[in-house]
From TrEMBL:
CDD domains: p53_inducible_oxidoreductase. It comes from Martelella radicis. Keywords: NADP, Oxidoreductase. Residues 14-326 form the Enoyl reductase (ER) domain. This is Putative PIG3 family NAD(P)H quinone oxidoreductase.
């Protein structure tokens, strides 16, 4: 591997045009880390929020963008299992994924499921870690329960609905527009167009008035109130994002009468040890569900690394269905 690599940084906070390709030294893996030759990197909402200044990166991390990758392990830090060398892994990264090479803790890496390509592997880590921790751990989704996913056409939404179905749950999703709803219905779920329908009324109709047991909320804002109104007694509301706003009034009386639980989390600031524990949960519970004829990530569009600004613009437009990925064609740094 060369000593220099191409990487994406932002010259300032702002729109997609502030993203630029620069030359940087290839990082060296520290103890417990691996160096990955990146074949592809996922594009995520936190990347966009970091670029715009809405959600700054944690202190001390690289200024290179990118939180998830898939590629080949090229070098090992002290204490890493030698068997990892030369293997293809999916990895959750603290930063640095939009580059030809990146380091990641070895225990934040997962094997690429058989039958998936590098680009598909690159868009899985953020989703798998997030969904396992929030939907299955915090939300405690059980087989036979009813789940509502707000934002079902997103990268997280399209992955979560498949995993929930494989888990044995009944799934309802929302999306913006009839085209997205039609595509979601082809994936075997009931889809509600939140732009034209009364979401609360539709959920209650679809559940014969019982409501849903778990809500996975990717929208945020005042959507929470329609969720509370269509949740079953003892339901769990899990917040993942605040695309529609960070503040909303909540009817505490309704919350108490229905015995509802509100919880939320964000992945990036969690400790290495917490992420390693999540990786073990993903490896045990979710990886066996993934494959060509099983749960498979939905790719909206693939971009070369040099078109990263266009990739960010697509994500911000909300026109994507599934995940957006940057491909590096497996080229060595």
């Amino acid at each position: 591997m060369n000593t220099m690599m191409k990487a994406v940084i932002a010259t300032a906070t702002g729109g997609p045009d502030v993203l630029t390709l620069v030359d940087r030294p290839v990082p060296a893996p520290a103890a417990g880390e691996v160096l990955i030759r990146v074949g592809a990197a996922g594009v995520n909402r936190p990347d966009v929020m970091q670029r715009s200044g809405a959600l700054p990166a944690p202190a001390g991390v690289s200024d290179i963008f990118g939180l998830e990758v898939c590629g080949v392990v090229e070098a090992l830090g002290d204490g890493v299992d030698p068997a990892l060398h030369g293997t293809t892994v999916m990895a959750l990264t603290k930063a640095g994924g939009y580059a030809e090479a990146v380091t990641a803790p070895a225990d934040h890496c997962l094997p690429l499921p058989e039958g998936l390509d590098i680009a598909e592997g690159a868009v899985l880590p953020e989703g798998l870690f997030t969904i396992w921790h929030n939907l299955f751990e915090r939300g405690a989704l059980k087989p036979g329960e009813r789940l509502l996913i707000e934002g079902g056409a997103s990268g997280i939404g399209t992955l979560a609905l498949q995993l929930a179905q494989a888990w044995g749950a009944s799934v309802i999703v929302t999306a913006g527009g009839p085209e997205k709803c039609a595509r979601l219905e082809k994936m075997g779920v009931a889809a509600i167009d939140y732009r034209s329908a009364d979401v609360t009324a539709e959920v209650l109709r679809l559940t014969d008035g019982a409501g849903v047991d778990v809500v996975l909320d990717i929208l945020g804002g005042d959507a929470i109130n329609r969720h509370l109104a269509c949740m079953a007694y003892g339901g769990r509301h899990v917040g993942l994002s605040f695309m529609s706003g960070m503040m909303a009034p909540v009817d505490l009386g309704l919350l108490m009468r229905k015995g509802l639980w509100l919880t939320s989390s964000t992945l990036r600031p969690r400790s290495d040890a917490e992420k390693a524990a999540m990786a073990e949960g993903v490896r045990r519970d979710l990886l066996p569900l993934i494959g060509p004829e099983k749960v498979r990530p939905v790719l909206s569009r693939r971009f070369p690394l040099c078109d990263v600004a266009e990739a960010h613009a697509l994500l911000e437009s909300g026109e994507n269905f599934g995940k957006i990925v940057l491909e590096l064609n497996g080229k060595a740094a």
